[in-house]
Amino acid sequence: MIKPWSITTTLRNPERLRNFLIVAQQIEESEWNLETQIKYQILLIQNRYYGYGSKQFYNNLSQAQIRLIDNMINEINIEQAEKIFNTKNYEDPPMRGRQSLSPLKKLGLVSIVNNAVHITSLGQLFLKDNFDYGEIFLSSFLKWQIPNPLSREYRIEDGYDIKPFVGTIHLINIVNKKWLELNNNPKGISKQEFSLFVPTLVNFSNIEKQAQNIIDLRLEVSGKSRDEQKQILENYKINYAKEFLNDNNPIKVEKLLKNLKDYGDNAIRYFRLTRLFYIRGNGYYVDLEPRRSIEIENLLSFDNAQSLEFSSKEEYLNYLSDITQPKLPWESKEKYIEIITKLVEEIRIYENNLSANLKEILNFNVLSELELKRYIQELRQYRRSLQNRELYIESQNIEKINDYIQTLENIYTYENRPLLLEKLCSLGLNALNDALKIQPNYPVGDDNEPTFTAPANTPDIECYYEVFNSICEVTMLKSRDQWYNEGQPVMRHLRDFETKHNEKDTFCIFIAPKLHRDTINTFFTAVKYEYEGKQQKIIPLTIENFVELLKILIQLKEAGKFLRHIELANLYNEIIERINDVKDSTEWINNIPNIILDWKEKLVS
């Protein structure tokens, strides 16, 4: 039976993918036999990269084992992890390790060479501290195909013949052209269309037909009421699923449609990291990135999305994991110059709109291919600085600040809340005052919209002011997971940042929906006593507290007053100093709203 493709259902989060790869280093060069497969899964459990916080995983475990996993103070030793694994009593224990390594193999991060585990050159790139999500996933997705010698579940005789990522680019491009021919503005494809039609696109020869299916469905619902549109769509999805499966079984149809939603959401999340896609239409549509039009146009001409033939697993793995293959159609001096020319035009528009000094542009015609490639990165980084400056100017507008407040107060109604919280806190910090620079560390697309949350080894946001600096760490976690995921990492990030920028006082602003008692106690100890031998300045805030700061900012603006960063430092110091007047961490946290209120009265009066 034919089925849709998916990137991975094991690891929906690219950050977890990297964690699995880090653990894979411990079995590198080991023979990939049943024993090693079990060992890999045990190592994942030991490092709490697998099973932690999963109610399903906790089934059959003793209360002592669950407490051990949940208690982050104590490390899990290998013997304890092995006992946990054995307690699960899996029917096929080695299969668990094979499943966990499978996404790494699929994306070319790990290969099995001569039956031994090997971290590929692409995997080594992912393990670097300064890795680039876009570079890694673009390199992988341009080559990932079905069928391939690594998988038996997709066979060419069953109708599979596509590079899913490249096929998706072709599909959106054709839909845009067809929509334009009908005198409509191209808008990409909706997330709902994506989930239904992209994972079920299993053969490159069906791209045109699939694009027409999307157009036909749009025309069918056009002009109908919302209820009629909903009914038409539901009927269409059921009939489409039956046709795809060649089966009328309602249970199978329902399962397929549920899976397609998950597969589509996951594919969007991963494909977005390549920077060739962007989200538009208030987050409802996925389109091709216009700022990468030269790369996309050349890719469309270069690759029709048909799968390639490989004589062996080794040949395919070598191709998939080799970051030098294939030579891309825009990797030439001529195309690099086209990209730079377009970039300069866009930069000049930003500079003009911002009344900024014009950047001196190198005589790029005399540069080598390698120099041109590096110059493109430099110009894109400069463009991001202009985009950030534009964001700062926009953030000074009261209407914009009200938008931030409204979204923060309703954050649970939005998708991808962790990423949205990082973005909103960055915008809010920009709005507050005269910062020299607010630098979020999440990766962004060419539209300067975040594609994923900040990597685990860096602060979420870095803030630079004239008289002090700070980092900002945010999380949507509320349970004890908050303490595990944020407690030690936040203090470590702050200490590293303090060491690097030791010429000024340094604060850490920690923002969460609510503060877990274990997190509060951990930060209380670091502030009142020490972390690694020295006190820290950590300001724990709820989202409600942060919203209150933005509301105070609006009051000041309406009164014609400007909130200077030194006044923000006064608030931070007051919160830190209050710790000496309270008996415990709970009293300290409970005092923060009153401290903010007193601070407000001083500013507004």
Helix content: 55-70%
Strand composition percent: 5-15%
Mean pLDDT: 91
Please count the helical segments. 24
CATH topology of the largest domain: Restriction Endonuclease
Q: What is the CATH architecture term of the largest domain?
A: 3-Layer(aba) Sandwich
Structural class based on helices, strands and sheet pairing: alpha+beta
For the terminal residues, how far apart are their CA atoms? 72 Å
Number of strands: 10
How would a crystallographer describe the biggest sheet?
Answer: 5 strands, mixed
What does this structure look like?
This protein is α+β, with helices and mostly antiparallel strands. It has four domains: 14-128, no CATH class; 162-306; 333-376, no CATH class; 396-604, Restriction Endonuclease, CATH 3.40.91.50. Helix content is 56%, strand content 8%. The strands form three sheets. The chain has a five-stranded mixed β-sheet, with helices on both faces. β7 (461-464) and β8 form a beta hairpin. α12 packs across α13 and α20 runs parallel beside α21. The protein is globular. The model has no long low-confidence stretch (mean pLDDT 91).
